[in-house]
Amino acid sequence: MQSETKSRVDQLTSPAGHPVSVLRFEGDIASTSKDAVLGTYQGLAKDKFKLILLDFTKVDYINSSGIALVIQMLIEAANSGQKVFAYGLSPHFTKVFTMVGITKYAGLFPSQDAAMAAL
Amino acid sequence: MTHKSANVEVRIPSRLGYEKVAMSTAASVAKLMGFREDRVEDLKTAVAEACINAMEHGNRLKEELSVGVVLSAGEDALEVKVIDDGKGLKTLPAKPDIDKKIHGEEDPRGMGMFLIQALVDEAEWVASANGKSSYVRLVIRLDSPTE
Description:
The structure holds two protein chains of two kinds. By secondary structure, chain A is of the alpha/beta class. Helix content of chain A is 35%, strand content 34%. Chain B is of the alpha+beta class. The interface between A and B is medium-sized, with 27 and 29 residues.
């Protein structure tokens, strides 16, 4: 019933010259998304990739279990000295991420260009 | 569409993912009532989280137990009851603390009830008297006074 979460990683360089790992998600982010969310993140070498950008452009549904996976990623990133940012959230999920405090640990941007320009 | 009262009922199995059926139904009713798109989105998340709680905690993910969702559209508000076969809550959990979660002092999960309370105008958890058939009652109003 829940649509499978797809994910892929693109390695980009910000205009300031910093390498940025972009994790692109597609589908629902829910309890079944552990491999797509945490597994994809954990596949990145923590000592090599310090800037992580999450792309939610193609995500329609995020529930509290999915939010918990994002928080688990933020915990691991904080412990590894990585910084996490995100873009592409709908206005509703931007509100939800703000309500639960995720924005304190992951800066949100309206677009990939806006995020890359700031990194 | 005139604003006569109307009731819609849905029963879903206690299988994660089926909360989206209740979510879509609630959204359809809210749109017929004239709710703004942002309020429809608030309702969708609140109903989905209420159904997930009912499946996981009330019905303990036993698929043979269904979750009942009763939508009552009134003149100026939509009431949603999400009913499970559990005993209900004795106390509401504390508000989640993102700092504690990030520092490993609190479970990363446990956002559902907080979101429900934050996104609708009223949220009430009612434990059953007989140890079965508890429910959460949500109300979302047209022209919410909080906006």
